[in-house]
């Protein structure tokens, strides 16, 4: 397996759904950044299960411990270990699934790849693995904050319902995390109806990064959008990624797609804040497609390890729609990717010729 | 910059549009694989400009030299250097663009990031950079061939025209590389009309990998779809990536999306051949959104390095739609990602418990 | 900072001397390897402080917890988190050293590099950091055991006293870990005398790996000796590395140094089991120079952060000679390097032409 | 194979002894650094064969071509390809060695590892591979120069003759590259006598880096001495590495080894300019043990691929002592390691609290 993301700022996660703990080591963090467990906890609390009716009812306090890399309240430059003990682990719940390959899950592929499978609540392939990502992402967010950049994700689609507004303040005030006051209750109802029907819903999460300076990203292989895609597509259940106009760009003409530059700055942002793999200084906007959760109550058929057909139904505490809980994870991966790109840019900056940027005035 | 892709099989590319040469070093290739310049040339010829009316008319023979890593016709395990000399370089053509930031291009971001910009035909951010990718991808393709796997990409959308058929044999017989006999001429005409109008068109390219064994991919950070996304999103002009149902999955319910497993194998492939970041053994299917080329003949306005507004028009030899030429590059990145995943799987396989796979019989 | 070692098998350590915990994540371990906390504990117990009069009297039980990557007693292929809580932390002991730059220590360089310094017992630069290495190394040792290879380190020099015998069984029976029954008591006495005098002694540790198959190592940059040197030189207090005849080779002639090959195998092993960066199948033998511990009771002079001259004396629980405790750490780094090289070789092996090895018969 | 060294500044080499070309790609170089082929050529000329009677008589002009990454005389931030065509390749000379395993060479291990061996002049394991290192190192040297740091290597021992002086200016004025006017002719004579006798001599090369700022190096795994050891031990024929007092430190007491810090700076430099894996600001001094060349004219016995005993004698153009030619390669690897560490330090520096360094005044 490969549990590390990043080049200079590297997160390595560990932990299985019903194992004793989950967490991460974040290595390469700059020194001198004020850091406490409380700051990390804030992001973890946003990810925690059981926050509302639209998420799983598993109860995990997810209290993080900061085991290293901090001294007298600031980062030291050393690797930062972040550990969360599991409390509500119920491995026995999964005994009946032991020999089954649940459709849509990684049961068959893990079994096939490793010859051994931790069947307790999906083991390593569980969404619980993202605890370490979110904890590390909280530190990455502080690095970005230190230069004034910020990242927010929010749900923009649930099933067929599409958000039209981007009222970002409102996004954190409703359980679906949608920035649209009108669509929020519709989406919530759709999710509850799906759960009622024993089914689940997909959706789309948008991520927006503001005040990211121009110049981040490392062509040609670590273009900013490529690294964002890598990080975001590594989140379970994500089936697609796009930046700026994304797939809609495929239907445009060049004359429509090109963002005109004016003495007052960029006149539009079809590019989503990235040109040639490098940030333009405009907001970075990308979206990910989240599939409907595979764990549904509706009875399904599948095969077991011996190839026999089996009926089964999942009766657990599952999310009927993943979007609200993917939001903090998507933010975390975005923060990690951007903070890493920032460090990489800082590495060469002393050699970059200082030029007067004609767009700076426009932005100031 | 960061010009390397891969972990065990690593390609590092070099070269600018109008510099003396472009190419790559491929490191980590297994020994004993028959390799000649001719095999690499075959893929390069498919990428070469000037093949038809729907692509740029720049004339580059793009003859590859194999400078190392091969002895008596087989790979030795050493790094393989692949170099292509540029012939039709015309740096002077670009002198008038020297101080301009062309909209949609990386002119501003390179200038901002590096403080210096090779303005000759986009320099490093040119599509010409992909020569090294395609050359290295040809070797990766041989690694995959050695276990019977194969990769093919093709255009499935140009502007608003969507291919419905997947006649893969036909894809290489038409200039648009679309696997649909009815749509091919429509797309070709649309491209020529766009060029005629001084404009350009976007599109979608689909990549399909067949006979990829189950078990490839390294969760949780190097999930197969994440690495494919990384590689494919690092190609210039690509604005989106999706695997299997992709963004359409966001509109599905779990009961529709889950691919049922039967004693006869998977009953569907909404997942696109990957579950939990690991290949299932089903065909891997993904798509990328390609934006319309930014170089258009229609006069545009922009600013120069001093912030002054400038009118300009590009009168060059540009692609009116990138899809046909992205096809071999997308194949190359896919081959590189899959071959790398294959090597990584081989590394642990001696320790994997050999299990009888109930789906094998179905597939055999 | 950079706390990761390895390519396919990657250890990332964390923890400071007087912080709440130390440990590591080992990522990339093959699945199916029987692993328990007890096996890891065995190696940790060999590293533990307070084992004899010749080491520090700090009392740490160093009980390891295995937090992930193991299911039903075997590794799953997932990242393995190994955590050891600190018990005998006494940060207050170090308050008086807060503003001093102790000579021979990393106080000045950490302060200079990071602008902040965890002064409690050297913080991250403490030997306590090696707990994570030893824990991860214990797992790497199991990977090697699975193919019959084994690694042992032992003290071969303390101050001016040089071991002549290689009675490896005896090495673990004496506190200095020297494989020479005659020299062991002399070394022990020398160490105690140095402590008595408030001083400390340097020494040399030799590492020997047996039954390592021919073919491990990745030229030209990851030659086996280069990676071993990297890993072993990253241990605190190590000032030199050599393989085979090492520095003595600089005084030899080619006719003496070349190991003749015969139908019965290699006639000698001046090379130390590595030729051209690849293992020969002979025992791998290397040595590291260990400096005398910098923490001595003799009063010293130094400067403080304000540049004022200061007298000070260290009155702590320090090792008078590091060799006995470096032994398990050197084994750990060697196991990690060799296991990584083994995995990398396995990755390409399916493509390696199977040849009849004329030396195999000799070895069999 | 693995032909890449470095993290942010990464060199990847290619090429075999008697193949068409050798060279490297250097990726991650900062932009804005004046660079011409002439500057690179200067270092290559120092490495070139045939410069004096004490080196091989093979005649290679080794003219470097700069294929990318430079525009209008300065680096652009893009990957830099450096290629040297081989002229005096005589693969036929090696036909008689085709099936032999030459003692001391990598013939057996390459054959065993890869199942195929480029037997022409050692193929990839030839010293000719270092052309790419030296070319890339020349660029790394420029990065260091931009902050005033400089690196010089020189021979300090040949066989039993040890240099006592460090007259660095003289080192480049004699063919052995020894900084000792008295010992130079003795060493030269010893080398010629060894050649006359059909034999070869080992030696020691010392590397010294001046004006390296304090703060470079990334504990705990990428400590500066560890990365230097990695880079220098990856040079063929190097069997040992030490920094500062190195192996002599093993015979010292702590009270002798600790470098006292005074208001006027460090009073000594037993540490060799590195403490805790981070540069102190003092000169970095390390040494490598170079084995006698394995290619000797004296008839030897060995076995062939079928295990038959064979007599053979090497009648080629070989170096009787490698030290003079290892000198520029050791400089190159040191420059690459230091420049990489410099970039990594620059990456975090904006977050490092600016402190008044009490030792600065002493140095100023």
From TrEMBL, chains A, B, C, D:
CDD domains: Chorismate_synthase. Its cofactor is FMNH2. It is an enzyme of class 4 (lyase). NADP(+) binds at residue 47. It holds the Pfam family Chorismate_synt. FMN binds at residues 124-126, 276, 291-295, 317. This reaction introduces a second double bond into the aromatic ring system. This is Chorismate synthase. The gene is aroC.
């Amino acid at each position: 397996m490969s549990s590390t993301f990043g080049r200079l700022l590297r997160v390595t996660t560990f932990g299985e759904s019903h194992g004793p703990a989950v967490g991460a080591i974040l290595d390469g963090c700059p020194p001198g950044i004020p850091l406490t467990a409380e700051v990390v906890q804030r992001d973890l609390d946003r990810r925690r299960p059981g926050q509302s009716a639209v998420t799983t009812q598993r109860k995990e306090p997810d209290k993080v411990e900061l085991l290293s890399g901090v001294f007298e309240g600031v980062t030291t430059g050393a690797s930062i270990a972040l550990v969360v003990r599991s409390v509500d682990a119920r491995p026995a719940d999964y005994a009946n699934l032991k020999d089954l390959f649940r459709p849509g899950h990684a049961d068959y592929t893990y079994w096939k790849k490793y010859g051994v499978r931790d069947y307790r609540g999906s083991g390593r392939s569980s969404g619980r693995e993202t605890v370490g990502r979110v904890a590390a992402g909280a530190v990455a967010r502080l690095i970005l904050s230190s230069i004034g950049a910020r990242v927010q994700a929010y749900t923009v689609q649930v099933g067929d319902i599409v958000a039209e507004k981007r009222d970002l303040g409102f996004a954190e005030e409703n359980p679906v995390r949608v920035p649209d006051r009108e669509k929020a209750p519709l989406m919530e109802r759709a999710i509850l109806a799906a759960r009622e029907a024993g089914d689940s819903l997909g959706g789309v999460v948008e991520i927006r990064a503001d005040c990211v300076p121009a110049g981040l990203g490392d062509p040609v292989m670590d273009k900013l959008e490529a690294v964002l895609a890598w990080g975001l597509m590594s989140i379970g259940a994500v089936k697609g990624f796009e930046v700026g106009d994304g797939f809609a760009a495929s239907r445009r003409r060049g004359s429509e797609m090109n963002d005109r530059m004016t003495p007052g700055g960029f006149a539009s942002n079809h590019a989503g804040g990235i040109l040639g793999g490098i940030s333009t200084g405009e907001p970075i906007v990308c979206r990910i497609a989240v599939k409907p959760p595979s764990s549904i109550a509706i009875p399904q058929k599948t095969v077991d390890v011996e190839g026999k057909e089996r009926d089964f139904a999942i009766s657990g505490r599952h999310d009927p729609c993943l979007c609200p809980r993917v939001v903090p994870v998507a933010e975390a991966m975005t923060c990690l990717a951007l903070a890493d790109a920032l460090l990489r840019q800082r590495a060469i900056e002393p050699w970059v010729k200082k030029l007067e940027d004609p767009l700076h005035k426009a932005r100031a």
